[in-house]
UniProtKB/TrEMBL annotation:
It comes from the Eukaryota. Residues 21-76 form the HAT C-terminal dimerisation domain. This is HAT C-terminal dimerisation domain-containing protein. InterPro entries: HATC_C_dom, RNaseH-like_sf. Residues 98-125 are annotated as: Disordered. PANTHER family: DUF4371 DOMAIN-CONTAINING PROTEIN, RAS-ASSOCIATING DOMAIN-CONTAINING PROTEIN. It comes from Xenotaenia resolanae.
């Protein structure tokens, strides 16, 4: 059991490990509190970083991203390799293998609209 000042000199991490391993099942309410305390972030840095990443990803040009794609892009941005190490050729090959894609020609990109106006897609660059 826990008696005296033996645990007074422990850091919180040491105390938590002692209660959760050596005294498991004895102090059930204390175990719940320790488990909660261990997962509470000390700072909001990761949350702030997430919002910054989201704001970089979801611009006015990409405002229709669904949550799944936005989350994937954010995970790649935060956890993926640096851009210099990314193998773009391999990514393009994988992307092409996912489904058949229609090749664009000049005729599909620059079509004559009714009324004589030509239709050209805006460049995002």
């Amino acid at each position: 059991m826990v008696y005296g000042d033996h645990y007074a000199s422990f850091s919180f991490q040491e105390f938590a490990e002692a209660v959760l391993s050596k005294h498991s099942g004895v102090f059930t309410e204390m175990e719940k509190l320790i488990k909660i305390a261990l997962v509470i972030p000390i700072a909001s840095v990761s949350c702030e970083r997430g919002f910054s990443t989201q704001n970089r990803m979801k611009t006015r040009f990409r405002n229709s991203l669904n949550n799944t794609n936005l989350t994937s892009l954010m995970m790649i941005s935060e956890l993926g390799p640096p851009q210099e190490q990314f193998d773009f050729k391999r990514a393009i090959i994988k992307w092409k293998e996912m489904k058949q894609r229609r090749q664009k020609t000049e005729r599909t990109e620059d079509r004559a609209e009714p009324g004589g106006m030509s239709h050209q897609k805006e460049s995002l660059h």
